[in-house]
Design a protein that fits this description.
single chain, 155 residues, mainly alpha, three-stranded antiparallel beta sheet, 7 helices, 3 strands, Transc_reg_Sar_Rot_HTH
Length: 155
Amino acid sequence: MHVKSTDLPATAPLPLSDFLCFAVYSANLAFGRAYKPILDELGLTYPQYITIIALWEQDNQTVSGLGEKLFLESNTLTPMLKKLEAMGYLERRRDPEDERQVRVSLTKSGRRLREKSLKMDLTDATGLAPNEFAKLQEAIVTLRGNLIRSIETDE
């Protein structure tokens, strides 16, 4: 018999499965496992892949702008960009108008990855109907925004 957390006394700790943060974290891990076979074919990690997607969306971004979009600190993003550059997927160069800024652009190989990644649609794997998929994505974006705002308010 499974006991629901609502049946437990108020002083009992909640089971891990009842934590929203764990549900989001473990769903992220499941996405990583689902993407892994395809990403392995491309020779990319998931963070490298989302970096490439962000550059498909808008090429020639500053490193700082890209970091904001990806929610990554420069100490995480810079080594990843160096690795992607060594792989031949992007190039980094100083902005001629502002030498303090580094701009990131896709190479021809980086743009070609898009064709190879078209089979990465996991919509069916989620088991969600199109309207459920959109609602869940919107709810998670709202959740993320609320959490970020609460942190900024506390600082």
